[in-house]
Specification:
Rossmann fold, 23% strand, binds flavin mononucleotide, globular, 8-stranded mixed β-sheet, single chain, alpha/beta, 416 residues
């Protein structure tokens, strides 16, 4: 398979509310040239019809391991061999649990044990179900077993709750799959060590209160994934609530700006390219109180004293033999002017600026638009999914800084 246009994809649909979006996934994959066959979990038919999925995929939908006609020729094994990729979207908590534990009591889970194809699981469920320790440990198991996960996203849910567990949007899922299945992506970043920071930081005031911001970590994660898919060795320093990472990316979870700064500094020696995407809090409460501050009789809440946090990116710039440094600027007014100034002030090689005053891009959104500013010029990127923007940014950074040709020794002399 040299691209999505040659892919034979099984789309497994489980019995979750987001199944109403699955026909869009089929259409999107087919528009890119993939052949898609749909398999229902035992409960998917309660949310979408076989008729719809048959019409959009152009193939009968299978949902029964005990289909006498299909199984006369061991149809489930044939189907498993036919697929060069399996995507499960939505994946319910129930099916995730079954898959993580190797169950094979229905067609979909049986196929997964019989396939050698890469499997992408797209969790989709209520935030409490997602955050339940059973689901979390099942997802860790899945990733340890080599399954890839996509999402979930954070936001408003069908049940009225707010939080993580929403299925990643169909266009983002398709971008993800397209990048993965394209062996046309040249492995130009092989041997290049990339470090990415992503997400917000959380600055604690007492055990239950903290200051944070709206960053979701999606853009940082997309950049880390894009660098990984071009062969780079990637370390992700992730703030709170950053979505799970796929196999192959070394991840360190941190909470505060101080922890992020320390994690970055500890691993900087081997880094060739540092991309600081995280929205690091500029200030933290001057005092951390070990016990919850009482509402009455304490002015720590009404007169909150703040102190400056370490500047993670500026501290990377101070290091001798520093890597190439790319920063991010989320601005709400005059973004280009502020970003140009910030690049010079921080002494970094490039800055990527996005206008977060537009709610359809930037923080927490699945889409973004940005401008990359470097010494030699500026490149504007149109609004697109954060996944495809991540890939475009990595391509540009590779060209601008000749990353594929750059040897570590060369980097050290140029920045010494
Ligand atoms: C209205 C409704 C919506 C549901 N939505 C979800 C969901 O989004 N995610 C999920 O994991 N389970 C959801 N469930 C529960 C699953 O349908 C249930 O766990 C079922 O056993 C899953 O079966 P399957 O994994 O074979 O598809 C929902 C149930 C109902 C009644």
């Amino acid at each position: 398979m040299s691209g999505i246009n040659e892919a034979n994809i099984i789309l497994g649909i489980c019995g979750g509310i987001a199944a109403y979006k699955s026909p869009y996934i089929v259409r999107g994959l087919k528009e890119r040239g993939a052949d898609v066959r749909v398999v229902f979990s035992p409960n998917a038919h309660k949310f979408v019809t076989k008729t719809t999925l048959q019409a959009v995929s152009g193939h009968p939908v299978r949902d029964n391991l005990w289909d006498e006609n299909a199984e006369a020729s061991m149809g489930h094994i044939e189907l498993a061999k036919w697929a060069n990729m399996i995507l499960i979207a939505p994946a319910t908590a129930n099916s995730i649990s079954k898959i993580a534990n190797g169950a094979a009591d229905d067609l979909l889970t049986t196929l997964l044990l019989a396939t050698e194809a890469p499997v992408f699981v797209t969790p989709s469920m209520n935030q409490r179900m997602y955050l339940h320790p059973s689901t979390q440990s099942n997802l860790v198991k899945l990733r340890d077993l080599g399954y890839f996960t996509i999402g979930p996203s954070d936001g408003s849910q069908a049940c009225g709750d707010e939080g993580p567990g929403r299925m990643t949007e169909p266009n983002e899922i398709i971008d993800h799959i397209a990048r993965h299945c394209s062996t046309e992506i040249p492995q130009n970043l092989e041997g290049v060590n990339v470090m990415v920071t992503a997400g917000p930081t959380r600055e604690r005031l007492d055990p239950v209160r903290y200051i944070t911001n709206d960053s979701s970590g999606k853009q940082g994660l997309a950049i880390a994934n894009a660098a990984k898919s071009k062969g780079a060795t990637v370390t992700l320093i992730a703030g709170p609530n950053v979505e799970p990472t796929n196999p192959g990316i070394f991840r360190i979870d941190v909470e505060s700006a101080i922890e992020m700064n320390n994690a970055v500094q500890e691993r900087l020696k081997e880094t060739d390219l540092f991309i600081g995407v995280a929205a690091v809090a500029d200030y933290r409460p001057a005092n951390f109180l070990k016990e919850k501050i009482k509402r009455h009789g304490n002015n720590s809440l009404t007169n909150l004293e703040l102190t400056e946090n370490p500047d993670v990116i500026a501290n990377v710039a101070k290091v001798k033999n520093r890597p190439i440094i790319v920063g991010f600027a989320a601005e709400t007014n005059d973004p280009l002017k502020h970003a140009r100034e910030k690049r010079i002030r921080k002494g970094i090689d490039a800055i990527i600026v996005n206008d977060v005053s537009d709610p359809s891009i930037g923080f927490n959104s699945t889409e973004n638009a940005a401008t990359l500013i470097h010494e030699g010029g500026e490149i504007a990127f149109a609004k697109q999914s954060k996944i495809s923007l991540g890939a475009e940014l990595i391509d540009q950074l590779e060209n601008i800084f000749s990353l594929s040709k750059r040897q570590k020794s060369l980097r050290q002399t140029s920045h010494a």
